[in-house]
Amino acid sequence: MQTDYTNYKDIDFLDDDFFIESMISPTRESERFWSELIDRKQIDLNEFISANMLLDIIRKSRYEVPRERKERLWERINTTQRLINNRRKQVPLYRYLAIAACSIIIIGISFTFLFRKDHSYHDHNQEVDYVQIQSLYQQKNQGDIRIVTEGRQVKIEGKEAAIKYDSTGSFIVNNEAVSSETVTLPAAEPIYNQLCVPYGKRASLTLADGTSLWINAGTTVIYPAVFPDHKREIYVDGEVYAEVQRDESKPFLIKTDKLDIEVLGTSFNVSAYKEDALKRVVLINGSVDVKLNGVNTRLAPSQSYTYTRQGSSVEIVDTEIYTSWREGIYIFQDEPIESILRQLSRYYNVTMTFPPQLSGILCSGKLELKDDLSRLLNNLSQIASFNFGVKDNEYKIQFNQ
Fold first, then answer.
1. What is the pLDDT of residue 57?
2. Are the C-beta atoms of residues 333 and 378 closer than 8 Å to each other?
3. What is the pLDDT of residue 63?
4. Which one-letter DSSP state was computed for residue 158?
5. I need a surface site. Which of 114, 226, 269, 355 has the fewest CB within 10 A?
6. Helix or strand holding residue 262 (H, E)
7. How far, in Å, CA of 275 to CA of 256, rounded?
8. What's the pLDDT score for residue 92?
9. Domain ranges of the chain
């Protein structure tokens, strides 16, 4: 009979042999089993993470745990390890897992980044599935700025945050140290962190190699605390301005849901929100290679690479238009009014609704994003010819025909 984990606390997980086995010697099947429970909300994620971390702490012996409790847990861990070793010699793993999983259909998402990183089947050269990691912590439109690192979440209050990592993977927030466990891992095993910047907020991020990112509202960045020896790679869903620290031996790669951008050392802006049909890379200096479906496009300074469902194009642009948001200024030139309103809704964290039919209205101008939103919309409506009403933080836009 399958165990009901719905009301399990962290201490209950630590008394569960299958949980301990899954953490000590995870398999793809066991990860899917736990991920299925999480996906169906049949498990308390916070308690699960807490148990995972406590088990890790006990095994590393880094924090004080009551002696009696620690000895009992160590005995369970050792017993489980012996059972694992014996079972590998005697029975195929799928039989044991079939009993544990019972009739559950395993369709869940991978939860690998919360599990132990020393499992034998891991391929160091395989692609990191950033989309699956990101799906566990979606909070684009509400809440605080958050850093998720190995199951632990650090909440940062306020509308802006400055996060800075050093070469060891430790970080500070707004020039203040953050209490966290120091973990030393082989260079081939990076710890993937996730920075979530909700709508209405912004952040800056200095990575362990010295690369600086300015992160716009509604953006998620997934990155290693320390880059491994063989590559520098991060994932972006949203918009960032990057100043990449030059290292000719290790090119820097930004992956998005559609585009890959590879550089050695340069400054550029990437706008690649998943929900937006248009993706854009604007190069300020240096050079970048934009990769799409196996096709490479190299950009020179002041060039913009634009991708839509209809195809891609490269053109010369005024780069200030695409980077001024860092200073709280929104410059737009011949921009569809719908795109402008969408950007404003992200920056101010409000809902805007407008007719599904495109208005065909193009606008050029400059907006100070520190101004009151209603005042901005009043000024914008004079040139874009629309009316708006607001109720419960929702703005309804109606274009004048």
1. 58
2. no
3. 39
4. S
5. 355
6. strand 260-263
7. 12
8. 43
9. 10-114, 130-269, 328-399
E-state strands within 42-198: 145-149, 152-156, 160-165, 171-173, 176-177, 192-197
- How far is Cα 202 from Cα 207, in angstroms, rounded to an integer? 16
Evaluate whether 267 touches 244 at the Cβ level (below 8 Å).
Answer: yes
Tokens of 87: 């079972």
117: CB partners within 8 A, 6+ apart: 185, 189
Q: What is the pLDDT of residues 72-106, one digit of tens each?
A: 555 655 555 555 455 444 434 333 333 333 322 22
Contacts by 236-239 with C-beta closer than 8 Å and gap 24+?
236/270, 236/272, 237/134, 237/272, 237/273, 237/274, 238/197, 238/271, 238/272, 238/273, 239/215, 239/269, 239/270, 239/271, 239/272, 239/273, 239/325
CATH architecture observed for domain 130-269: Sandwich (2.60)
Nearest one of 129, 123, 135, 104 to 32, comparing CA atoms: 104
Helices marked H in 91-183 — which ranges?
A: 93-101, 130-135
| Best CA proximity match to 324, nearest among 221, 241, 261 | 241
Residue 116's identity, in one-letter code, is R
Q: What is the pTM of this model?
A: 0.65
Q: Which residues of the chain have pLDDT under 70?
A: 1, 53-54, 56-142, 150-151, 179-190, 401
**For residue 381, what is the enclosing H or E element?**
helix 373-384
How far apart (Å, rounded) are the C-alpha atoms in residues 368 and 270?
21
Helix residue ranges per DSSP H, 246-364: 320-323, 337-348
Provide the 8-state DSSP code for 112.
G
CA distance 204 to 311: 32
Which pair of tokens denotes residue 19? 């949980």
Q: Which two tokens stand for residue 250?
A: 């290790």
User: Which DSSP category does 354 fall into?
Assistant: -
Q: Give start and end residues of each alpha helix (H) in 316-372.
A: 320-323, 337-348
163 forms beta bridges with 173, 205
57-73, pLDDT tens digit by residue?
A: 565 443 344 455 545 55
Candidates 3.55.50.30, 3.30.300.30, 3.40.50.970, 3.90.550.10; CATH matching 328-399: 3.55.50.30
Residues 244/266, Cβ–Cβ less than 8 Å:
yes
